[in-house]
């Protein structure tokens, strides 16, 4: 058995409808995944499955999600070693946990994305580590001009998690 982390891009199903984590857990168990756990109410799963390519895990979760919830949502998965490497690779550990985010990417970004995003920067620190984009907003992320630039259209399929969540998932794995 292998351990995987899966991150939903969105838990919003429509106006006034959000995915309940117990329903998400039940959906993953219905796919045959074992020891399914969730972290906070933002679509974070840790589970065990037969060892397989991450793309296969993503495809199963996305198909299962669409069948159960009636909507496609991009889901990014990582194996345990890759997730722990991501957590250990935070270049801004001196930042505030809720204001440091990583955009976890399906396809790795190159460092040239930093030039593309430069025109939106207002003091944020940014780095690409192993293809994922780390940003330390310093102030409140909600007050930046950077967030609207971090779209799937511009960057590709990915989803953002703050440093507190990244650490929390790493702690779940290590238990």
Automatic annotation (TrEMBL):
SUPFAM superfamilies: SP0830-like. Pfam families: DUF1697. InterPro entries: DUF1697 (IPR012545). It comes from the Bacteria. Transmembrane segments: none annotated. This is DUF1697 domain-containing protein. It comes from Rhizobium tropici. The lineage of its organism: Bacteria, Pseudomonadati, Pseudomonadota, Alphaproteobacteria, Hyphomicrobiales.
């Amino acid at each position: 058995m292998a351990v995987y982390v899966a991150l939903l891009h969105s838990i919003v199903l429509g106006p006034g409808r959000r995915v309940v984590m117990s329903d998400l857990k039940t959906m993953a168990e219905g796919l045959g995944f074992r020891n399914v756990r969730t972290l906070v109410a933002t679509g974070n799963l840790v589970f065990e499955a037969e060892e397989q390519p991450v793309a296969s895990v993503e495809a199963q979760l996305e198909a299962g999600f669409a069948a159960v919830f009636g909507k496609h949502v991009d889901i990014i998965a990582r194996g345990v070693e890759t997730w722990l490497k991501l957590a250990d690779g935070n270049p801004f550990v001196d930042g505030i946990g809720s204001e440091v985010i990583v955009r976890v990417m399906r396809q790795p970004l190159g460092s040239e994305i930093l030039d593309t995003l430069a025109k939106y920067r207002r003091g944020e620190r940014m780095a690409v580590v192993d293809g994922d984009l780390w940003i330390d907003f310093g102030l409140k992320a909600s007050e930046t001009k950077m967030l609207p630039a971090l779209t799937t259209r511009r960057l590709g399929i990915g989803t953002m998690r703050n440093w507190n969540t990244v650490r929390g998932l790493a702690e779940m794995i290590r238990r």
